[in-house]
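Lecture notes, continued. The same structure-token format from the folding unit now serves as the input rather than the output. Read the line below as a description of shape only.
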């Protein structure tokens, strides 16, 4: 087998050699080799955390360590590569919007939700009110900015926040084999400080978009954002969405295919707020970020992929609480960009 040189070979070249040549190609060797690569990249991009700031508008989030950077990657065969600060729990924040959207579509049907929330990027910040008012929209722009997400949350079935979130927890449990818990301190910190989201809520109430009581809707929204997860969880959820909602280990359908596909399209066009265009151009994979520094990303499964069979249909979780001015993990984006380019993950 060709001797591997991680400084000169691209990952595709090496894996292509492995696949073509190679009587002794094996998963363990590949994993070891990928691990070395990823370890190098994480230590390189960790320096970029110094260029960002942790979120402070939810006071408790300011306690995060801005030097942290970790990544977890799960292939469609379960192969896992994790590196850096991979064991730090953090709250899911806006990444929850992908899951409440999925749950709402499963409960109400896709067309019910799409009649009430659009699928257009805003080009504005995640918590903008201005867009709603200036454009006099018929419905909120998309489910991944706060106005659209709060509207989706109002459409979840149930009268109390706990009833509304039960199917959300059940979906998480099905994907992760455990039930993540609410971080009560983060929930209370957001509940007591989130005047902007209350303003958005009142505007949605006035304009007739909300389908549940305002206070219950906001309580549900703050709770969904405060569920604690890890990058391994994000990678696993990403891997299932990448595979059109199916668990590749046993072909069980966890999310209906059409809903998973729509979620991917929305992640690609709206997942990184007003940096979504740049992210699509330079990274090119569906992703969704949150203000605690998490990013979920994925490489949709592609039959054509011969060089990296186990990375077609992979999920990626990143944690790096130092954020850029759009509210996305500053080092996390750079790390993802590097990996997507090296491994040819772009959907384009
Ligand atoms: N970008 C985010 O992660 C925002 C989520 C946060 N809970 C908020 O609504 O303000």
């Amino acid at each position: 087998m060709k001797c591997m040189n991680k400084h000169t070979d691209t990952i595709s070249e090496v894996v292509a050699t492995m696949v073509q040549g190679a009587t002794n190609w094996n998963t363990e060797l590949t994993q070891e080799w990928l691990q070395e690569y990823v370890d190098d990249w994480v230590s390189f991009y960790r320096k970029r955390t110094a260029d960002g700031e942790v979120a402070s508008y939810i006071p408790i989030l300011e306690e995060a360590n801005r030097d942290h950077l970790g990544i977890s990657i799960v292939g469609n065969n379960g192969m896992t590569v994790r590196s850096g600060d991979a064991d730090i729990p953090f709250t899911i924040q806006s990444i929850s919007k992908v899951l409440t959207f999925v749950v709402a579509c499963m409960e109400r049907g896709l067309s019910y939700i799409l009649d009430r929330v659009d699928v257009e990027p805003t080009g504005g910040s995640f918590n903008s009110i201005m867009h709603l008012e200036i454009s006099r929209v018929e419905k909120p722009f998309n489910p991944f900015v706060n106005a659209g997400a709060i509207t989706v949350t109002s459409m979840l079935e149930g009268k109390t926040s706990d009833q509304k979130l039960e199917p959300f927890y059940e979906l998480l449990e099905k994907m992760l084999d455990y039930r993540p818990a609410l971080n009560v301190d983060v929930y209370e910190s957001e509940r007591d400080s989130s005047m902007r989201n209350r303003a958005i809520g009142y505007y949605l109430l006035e304009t007739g978009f909300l389908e549940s009581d305002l206070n219950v809707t906001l309580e549900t929204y703050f709770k969904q954002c405060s569920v604690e997860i890890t990058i391994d969880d994000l990678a696993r959820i990403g891997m299932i969405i990448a595979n059109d909602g199916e668990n590749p280990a046993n072909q069980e359908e966890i999310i209906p295919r059409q809903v998973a596909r729509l979620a991917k399209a929305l992640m690609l066009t709206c997942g990184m707020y007003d940096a979504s265009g740049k992210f699509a151009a330079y990274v090119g994979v569906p992703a969704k970020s949150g203000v605690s520094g998490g990013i979920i990303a994925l490489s949709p499964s592609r039959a054509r992929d011969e060089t990296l069979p186990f990375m077609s249909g992979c999920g990626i979780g990143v944690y790096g609480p130092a954020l850029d001015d759009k509210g996305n993990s500053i080092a996390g984006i750079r790390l993802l960009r590097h990996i997507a380019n090296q491994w040819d993950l772009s959907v384009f």
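Point for the exam: The radius of gyration is 20 Å.
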